[in-house]
């Protein structure tokens, strides 16, 4: 894969489709279900052109839109539309690709697809077009994932970041690390193999210094990737507190919609309610949990158990307390957690000023009223800060948890390499750590990824991608 990656950027096409083990021809409806002005059936593989020749009665011409009738086995027209033929290897998948642009009706698209399958194509699996693009070196794994992320973007900021990843911004940075690590390994191994050389790379600290630079830069890349992940996945925020503290009201106030049942009877929010809102392009997943309290009620006890489980999954916890209630026994349930903000709610009844209040139990505290909306602007600012959103996320690329995990693993091995060099002067062991760091980076771009991982990633795409 490595050479293919390099070639991809040099604009050179690498493999031809016939090298592929499963070079059959696939087809799928590429436009969303439902009605639209235009619907597209996409075909990829060696038989794309012959199939379309039979479908339309004439051979498609490369890279030039042609108006044709699409005909069934009896020669009756199914539809009329454009044929777009992109011969491999310079196509999206690297194979011969044909797009049939017909009218976007559910039945007409199904008939057109059925005819294409009848003529010898196989129905594509979810993500199979992108998978072929990846296998043919047209894009790496990060870019293939960016295709799915761009389509799935829920905010404009996320879409911009996905395009940047698709253009290779993330991949090129990772490739840069791969090259630097390769150089370092060459140095370390040269120092091991030729200890009598005049310059002892290991002894003069040069390799160690350069490895430290890699560690620092990798740390910065992890931070950028975290921002990217935030744009994609957002932040999970659990809202907890005693029944009647005002959790559902707060969820509604933030979401400005009536999803939770707000009543004055304690313990009505028995299940976990979820709501997604946007804060400057960052998706926030708000989770309203059942009240935290001892209870005999089976159903509610289950709710409390779920509340605690949600807490463990949450990036940030909002503990809602009634400002008019003197006791705060729920503090004990959250002891030891650091990602908590106390919200003193119902200040419209207690006349407390909205906004920043004195720290409680080591946690930041804000005075709000879910009912009047007082203090909610400060709360939104707090949530943004908790998200670690840096101002102007321009230049952020799209990243997934998988990517951050791989980067962290790589960084751990780089750190170990530094220890080996600095403390142990153990060149062989350092070289091995650098190799493992490269392996994790290769995992990220798909260079060394297992078939299982690839299968898992591409199968989460939808059909036609
Ligand atoms: P939950 O059980 O924690 O979800 O609490 P709810 O959101 O159901 O609220 C319980 C009661 O408190 C309801 O009658 C709300 O209208 C009321 N409430 C919630 N927030 C406020 C507030 O800021 N001010 C006042 N005055 N009442 C509130």
Lateral arrangement of strands in the main beta sheet? 8-9-7-10-11-13-12
Strand pairing plus helix content: what structural class? alpha/beta
Strand portion, in percent? 15-25%
How many helices? Answer: 16
**Total number of beta strands:** 13
Bin the helical content: 40-55%
Cα-atom Rg, whole angstroms?
28 Å
Mean residue pLDDT: 84
Largest sheet features? 7 strands, mixed
Tell me, briefly, the overall form.
Answer: flat
Walkthrough of the structure:
The chain has helices at residues 2-10, 48-56, 106-118, 128-135, 141-152, 156-166, 169-193, 206-233, 247-255, 298-313, 330-333, 347-350, 376-386, 401-424, 427-445, 451-459; strands at residues 26-29, 36-44, 66-71, 77-86, 97-104, 122-123, 235-241, 273-279, 282-288, 316-322, 340-345, 355-360, 363-367. It is of the alpha/beta class. The strands form two sheets. Strands 8-9-7-10-11-13-12 form a seven-stranded mixed beta sheet, sandwiched between helices. Helix 5 (141-152) packs antiparallel against helix 6 (156-166). The longest helix has 28 residues, at 206-233. The chain binds guanosine-5'-diphosphate (GDP). The site of guanosine-5'-diphosphate (GDP) has 20 residues, from helix 9 and helix 12. Guanosine-5'-diphosphate (GDP) binds at residues 241, 243-249, 262-264, 269, 291, 345-346, 348-349, 369-371.
Sum up the structure in keywords.
single chain, 465 residues, alpha/beta, 7-stranded mixed beta sheet, 6-stranded mixed beta sheet, 13 strands, 45% helix, flat, disordered N terminus, binds guanosine-5'-diphosphate
């Amino acid at each position: 894969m490595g050479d293919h990656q390099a070639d991809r950027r040099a604009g050179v096409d690498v493999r031809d489709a016939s090298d592929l083990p499963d070079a059959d021809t696939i087809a799928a409806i590429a436009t969303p279900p439902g009605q639209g002005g235009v619907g597209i059936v996409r075909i990829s593989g060696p038989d794309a052109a012959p199939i379309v020749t039979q479908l339309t009665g004439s051979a498609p011409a490369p890279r030039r839109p042609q108006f044709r009738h699409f005909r069934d086995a009896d020669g009756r027209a199914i539809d009329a539309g454009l044929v777009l033929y992109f011969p491999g290897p310079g196509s999206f998948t690297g194979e011969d690709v044909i797009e049939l642009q017909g009218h976007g009706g559910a039945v007409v698209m199904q008939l057109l697809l059925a005819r294409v399958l009848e003529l010898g194509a196989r129905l594509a699996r979810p993500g199979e077009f992108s998978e072929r693009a990846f296998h043919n070196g047209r894009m790496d794994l990060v870019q293939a994932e960016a295709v799915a992320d761009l389509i799935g973007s829920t905010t404009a900021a996320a879409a911009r970041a996905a395009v940047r990843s698709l253009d290779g911004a993330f991949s090129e940075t990772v490739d840069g690390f791969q090259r630097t690590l390769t150089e370092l390994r060459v140095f370390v191994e040269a120092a091991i193999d030729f200890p009598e050389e005049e310059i002892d790379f290991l002894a003069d600290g040069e390799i160690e210094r350069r490895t430290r630079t890699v560690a620092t830069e990798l740390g910065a890349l992890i931070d950028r990737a975290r921002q990217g992940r935030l744009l994609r996945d957002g932040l999970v925020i659990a809202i907890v507190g005693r029944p009647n503290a005002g959790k559902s009201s707060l969820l509604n106030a933030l979401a400005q919609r009536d999803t939770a049942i707000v009543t004055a009877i304690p313990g009505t929010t028995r299940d976990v309610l979820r709501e997604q809102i946007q804060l400057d392009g960052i998706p926030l997943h708000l989770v309203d949990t059942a009240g935290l309290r001892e209870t005999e009620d089976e159903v509610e006890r289950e709710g409390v158990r779920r509340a605690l489980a949600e807490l463990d999954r949450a990036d940030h916890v909002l503990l809602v307390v009634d400002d008019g209630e003197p006791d705060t026994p729920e503090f004990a349930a959250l002891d030891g957690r650091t990602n908590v903000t106390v919200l003193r709610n119902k200040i419209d009844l207690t006349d407390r000023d909205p906004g920043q209040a004195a720290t409680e139990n080591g946690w930041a505290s804000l005075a709000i009223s879910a009912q009047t909306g007082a203090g909610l602007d400060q709360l939104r600012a707090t949530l943004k800060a908790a998200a670690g959103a840096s101002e102007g996320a321009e230049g952020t690329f799209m990243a997934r948890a998988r990517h951050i995990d791989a980067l962290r693993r790589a960084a751990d091995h780089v750190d170990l390499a530094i220890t080996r060099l600095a403390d142990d002067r153990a060149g062989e062991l350092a070289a091995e750590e650098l190799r493992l760091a490269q392996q994790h980076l290769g995992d990220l771009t798909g260079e060394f990824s297992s078939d299982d991982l690839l299968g898992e990633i591409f199968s989460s795409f939808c059909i036609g991608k």
